[in-house]
Amino acid sequence: MGIEIVNESGHEVDEGGVVDAARFALGEMGVNPLAELSILVVDLDHMTELNRRWMGGTGPTDVLSFPMDDAMPARPDSIEPGTPVLGDIVLSPDVAADQAKEAGHSAADELHMLTVHGVLHILGYDHAEPEQAKEMFGLQNRLLDAWRVKRRAAQSAES
Question: b/e for 106-144, b at 16 or more Cβ within 10 A?
């Protein structure tokens, strides 16, 4: 899985954890291992502008996903030639830090969750309707739980 992360936020971010969470989620979802994903970490002003321009929102948001028009070539059974490009995820560590305080966990945990959330949006999941939200957030929680277990096991093995 080719995952590029660029941090333009001015904040220190657990880039390795963000990439690892994205890679795990994509793998668990059966995405073609040759697929490429871009993750951009931005400051409040940049996120505010992206949210206004592309979503019609006001103020910054926590995560935005910009899937390619057709993510289907990323499926493992795809016979399309070339490397499938999934799209872009944009994260705001400022918004994540505020949300983490409210939720009672670390900003890194919040960014990991937002990364998995963004991956699911890239893959076509949404939460606009109650049934969609139930499916998406349930899947998001299962993926995060499994990733955290795997990550803790790997960290224990290194100790």
Answer: ebbbbbbbbbbbbbbbbbebebeeeeeeeebeebbeebb
Q: Note the pLDDT of residue 2.
A: 93
pLDDT over 70 at 137, yes or no: yes
Strand residues in 69-114 grouped as ranges (E)? 85-91
Rounded-to-integer distance, Cα 36 and Cα 129, Å: 29
Among 36-40, 48-52, 67-71, 77-81, the minimum mean pLDDT is found in: 77-81
What residue spans define the domains of the chain?
2-158
pLDDT at 78 over 70: no
**pTM of the predicted model over 0.85:** yes
46-55: which pairs have CB atoms within 8 A and are 24 or more residues apart? 46/8, 47/90, 47/92, 47/94, 47/95, 50/90
Query: Mapping DSSP to helix (H, G, I), strand (E, B) and coil, where does residue 31 land?
Result: coil
Rounded CA-CA distance 58/52 in Å is 6
Name the CATH superfamily housing domain 2-158.
Metalloproteases ("zincins"), catalytic domain (3.40.390.30)
